[in-house]
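It is worth pausing here to work through a concrete case rather than discussing structure prediction in the abstract. The textbook approach is simple: state the sequence, then state the predicted structure, then interpret. We follow exactly that order.
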Amino acid sequence: MATPTLSKTSLPGVLGEIMIDVRASDRKSPGPAVIVLHGFKGFKDWGMFPPFAERLARAGFAAVSLNVSGSGADDRGEFTFPERFGHNTFSAELADLDRVLDALDQGALDIHRPTSVGLVGHSRGGGMAILFAERRPRIGALATWAAISHVRRWRPEPMAAWRRDGRIDITNARTGQVLPMYPDTLDDIDAHAGSTLDIGAAAGRLRTPWLLVHGSADEAVPVAEALDLDRVRPAGVGSEKLIIEGAGHTFGAVHPFAGMTPALEATVGGTVRFMGRHLG
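Step two, the predicted structure:
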């Protein structure tokens, strides 16, 4: 397999640019592609995502990594668009995914129209990936890493204060930067949590082969959420579960990336093999 090359492009998204990296070893002929979606406060260049995308590309996939338009992050991973972050919603992320998949199928991302498409999402991105795969049958294989099982992530008291004050502040633990969140997220939850944003219901309807990966010691999304998803998802569709004993939310990865850990290697290797079994 040839050495992967990296191309960068962007698409108009709901809240601004969707920044996209495509890593591929073969751009001359059609092949399978895998979309990689970050989570809350994440971005395409965070820690484990570039080496994972490189591994996908070396395995023969076109790896399509993106910053959703409401991530707030620029192409260097700096949060230079705090207002976009502040107005981001779950529904906006799903709409951005629609645009990326449509662009892939139009051959508009520096590669041919893929023969098949997989989707990998981490944390919040895992929940969005479940919702997206359930309504877009073009997704032929799904992998979720530490996925959320519901969109109501806040207790009633903080939500009430959030509405009263018109914002809450989110601190980036790595940089100390304070990012605003406006009530757009609350409005989105109130309008759609029981319908288009019902992750559990989507998981129960999903017929796409699904690799569910979670760490037993996840400090941000309890492993109980993975078990909830596993209980409702249909049997007999090529799905697998991987609970990694002792692993946390990022499977030992940090940013800047400091190398593979055993938990991350199990996650990355297992995902690449799973995609290989289900994408032609």
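Step three, interpretation. The chain has a mean pLDDT of 97. Residues 262-278 form the longest helix (17 residues).
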